[in-house]
């Protein structure tokens, strides 16, 4: 069975725009199966596909049976994604409707991380910049950010 490269490298969250014009939020998935922990410290990467930013001929319609791992799909309006990193263990993703700014979908990922520590494989000598949380704490360091975020955005320009 093929293993997604993100699983090998420890990717915990994956957001990408692609040449499909709708929004889809999935459960964390490994080998096509939803992680039983859902967003509560999953071992599989979390996939969010947002192609609903805009398109010259409108939003695409999702007209196939939904896989079991799909948790939310939206193919009626344009929108964008907002990420909120609450601390080193919690991140919230929101789908925001472009026309009026309302939140149409929201989900929060929890990952059990040790906060404020450099990764065990850290070999750099550069200092890190503190990141403050809601209470003004600077204990969080950039080198121990919430997630390894892989953003693969495909931009296609057509004339």
Automatic annotation (TrEMBL):
Pfam families according to UniProt: Metallophos_C
Superkingdom field: Eukaryota
Family matches, as InterPro entries: Metallo-depent_PP-like, PAPs_C
Domain Purple acid phosphatase C-terminal: residue ranges: 44-106
PANTHER family to which the protein is assigned, alphabetical: PURPLE ACID PHOSPHATASE
Name recorded for this polypeptide: Iron/zinc purple acid phosphatase-like protein C-domain-containing protein
């Amino acid at each position: 069975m093929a293993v997604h490269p993100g699983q090998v490298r420890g990717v915990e969250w994956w957001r990408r725009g692609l040449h499909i014009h709708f929004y889809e939020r999935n459960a964390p998935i490994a080998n096509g199966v939803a992680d039983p922990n859902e967003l509560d410290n999953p071992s599989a990467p979390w996939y969010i596909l947002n192609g609903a930013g805009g398109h010259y001929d409108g939003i695409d319609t999702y007209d196939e049976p939904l896989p079991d791992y799909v948790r939310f799909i939206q193919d009626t309006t344009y929108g964008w994604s907002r990420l909120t990193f609450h601390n080193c263990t919690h991140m919230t993703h929101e789908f925001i409707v472009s026309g009026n700014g309302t939140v149409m979908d929201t989900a929060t990922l929890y990952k059990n991380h040790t906060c404020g520590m450099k990764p065990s494989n850290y070999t750099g000598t550069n200092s890190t910049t503190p990141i403050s949380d809601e209470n003004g704490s600077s204990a969080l360091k950039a080198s121990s950010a919430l997630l390894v975020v892989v953003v693969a955005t495909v931009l296609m320009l057509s004339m």
